[in-house]
Amino acid sequence: MSADGTLEPNLSGPAGSYMPPSGGGPDVFFGRNGVSIPLPLIERAEGIRMWDDSGVEYIDMSSGPIVSNIGHGVPEIGEAIASQISTVDFACSRIVRHRASLRLSDQISRLAGPGYERVCFVSGGSEANEIAIKFLRQYAISIGQTRRRHVITCMPSYHGGTFSTLAWSGDNTLGDFLDGMVVDSPKIPAPFTYRVPENHTVESYAQHCADALRNTINELGAENVLAFMIEPVGGVATGALVPHQNFFQAVRQICDENGVYLLFDEVMSGSGRTGKFLSAHYWPQIQPDVAVLAKGLGAGYVPLGAVLVPAAMADPLAEHLGFDFSHTYTANPVACAAGSAVLDYTEQHNLMDNAMEMGAYLRNALELLKESCPLIGDVRGLGLLMSLEMVADQATKKMLPAEAVAADRIRMHGLNNGLLIYSRRTCRGENGEWFMVAPPLTISRDECDELVERLARALNDLAEELTREGLLS
Q: Where are the alpha helices (DSSP H) in 125-282?
């Protein structure tokens, strides 16, 4: 703490200014090298706001890790959870059925549209991506394509925290950790739109990345490739990257030509966050074969994920080999009831429309902020899934130096200005440094204005600090 009570970074190594209490929570395991950021002890949350044990109020600017879609403290969700617990608290999906799962399946299939008639429920995004790949692998085996096993993904990307999903994710800092533990997946370049090679336009680079997919499939042998998995709107790994539409068109064609399944990881972008239930709905001509939801589906009230597949694949598989991979909490009644209540609330309050409207309003405000804040290089995203990329120079897109640890410091300055910001350095920052702007879908215009005012102060504080330290001219 500084003399005025604000939070200060620790650049002195392991003996950080922040030490969790003995015993503590999960944060006792977090790394404390570099910038150590005291974590506020949250006592209460409502709407887009949280209050700590000292009464300090924060705007939840990133919905945690892009999860709290409907905001905090919605009574209807608690009532739905309590009602379900009082009727059927748990039921094993391998032994019995229950109405909570049936109702949520119907809701998701209706909102997702044709091609997603069957839904498998799990406890989160990592599980969902693993189940999706298991489903595709089992289906391929059922039709005699036993050699299809490779899953191609992007560098960078993020698909979960289990060993398998980390191997599918694109993060070049995990080499030693994953070495010998998993089989790494083939990677193609992520189709960035802000930082593209000098000899490319955004459109030509999108084609270059699609060509990389085609070339990778050819090198591996199409008969050996199972799926291409991508976040249609990126999360923290790419800073809300929205690829050029030509990329998706080319990818769909390449997958079709080679019998490769296209999987959209909509853990962050789904459940209405971008203004549509699936962000895939923005590109109806390139519908993925399988889609995955989590985070906003349970909206932070329960751990919940879902795998959406067509009946045309699920039903023949059930008649042949069957798909018997499940977990203890697969289709948990309480989680399903909460998920139904979240979707009810989302539809009743027109939150998908609000995400589109407030997303456009907030993006315009952020673009205006960029004009007065040289630290902002790019504003990107879709609906209320956005990010700001920080730069040393707007004109040249020069990156901030690594020693600035900007993605960490902005969280600290956010706290000092009443903002909870989600940011994480990806691939040592070699593709840039950004943070997420993804408030709950309930946000109003006045709340957007307040968020931008606080963010302006946080960015100015960061810029002043970096300038004092000679890290920004």
A: 125-142, 163-168, 175-178, 202-220, 245-258
